[in-house]
Structure formats: C-alpha cells, structure tokens
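During the reporting period the student researcher (J.K.) took over the structure-prediction task from the postdoctoral fellow and processed the backlog of single-chain submissions. One of the processed entries is reproduced below for the supervisory committee.
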Amino acid sequence: MYLALRPPWGHGGTTPPADAGVVAMAPADAGVAKPKKKGHHRRSTGGGSTTSGDEQGWGSGDYVEETEPQLVQLTAADRAMEWRGDDTTRPAQKIDMTSGAEARSLDDNEIRSTIDGQSGAAQQCVMAGATNTNLAGTISIKLVVDGSGHVTRSKVQAFHYMFEHGLLACVQRAVGKMKFPATGSSTLVTMPINFN
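J.K. obtained the following structure tokens:
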C-alpha cells in the first residue's frame, strides 16, 4: 500500500522547502501492514528464533496452513495387513559330532539385547513408510539367523500402503546389517515394531 501525502505548501502560495522534490519514500516492504507484522513477532516469542529480515519474518507466520503436510487419504486396501519377503521356515538342523562346541538356538536375552541395540534402522524404515498418514499398529518382522549370527532371510507383516512406499526393501537392508551372537545353530526370531 502506498500513501500519498498532500504537501502543506500546495495551496498557501508559499515557497516549498529545498527538499520538496521527495514527498515520501516508501521502504522496500511498504506493502506489509505494520500492525500485522507486530502480531507476527508476538507469536514468535514462544521460544522460536525471530528472523531479522521483514520479508522472511512475514512469510513464515502467515502461511502456516499452506505449508503443513496434508494426511494421505487411505483406502481400505491401503490399510490391509499382509506379509511380504522371504520364506522364513527354519532350515533343517545339522549336527556336527566332530566339534566339541554344542550348537544351540539364541536365547531370549541374546535376542532382546541385539534387538534393543540394533533395531534403530528398521524402526526408521517403519516411520518413513507411514509418513503423512494416520496409520498405527504393530509391524512384525521375522528373521532367520544362522549359526554365525547373521540374518539370512526376512519377511515383514505391514500395511499394504507401507509396502507400496518402499518398506520391504528398507527393512531387509536394515535387518541384514544386524549381528546376533554366534551359537552354531539357526534361530527364527520375531521382531515387533510398535508405532502410532
């Protein structure tokens, strides 16, 4: 908005002052109404940083609704739970009579300790697959861990929508990097990930 001022010397017939050539000079942000800008700075005192430029400070406060991500509208098919991945049937066990070590499956403490310390990447996959949705629940991951502690096969139970957005490949990469204790025998491990 530009404001035109009528000079006081316009009708009196008196000689204008020497600098009468410039009536008013509008700043670069003259289109910004001052009361609104003050209101924006009041809102930003709740702990956020205030930008120094008028245009930057203005743009961030007035268009919040337009920048917030909209939730994806999911169909019943998107919400259907399904399994995808490898066959996780536990392989037949081979007994080695020549070595003195006793082969055994992983115990609960070994499984829990490994999952607690190494499941972060798989959890990030789950959160990424549910971005901008209101999906919530438990994603189940089945792993076949061989006798040396490596994950050789895995499959995932999750929402159809999440699979369509790269969940399976992401989870299989993540769990493939997990390392369990070596026990000499394969173990079938189920790893649940809860999210809401």
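The committee noted the following: The longest helix spans residues 108-118.
J.K. will present the remaining backlog at the next meeting.
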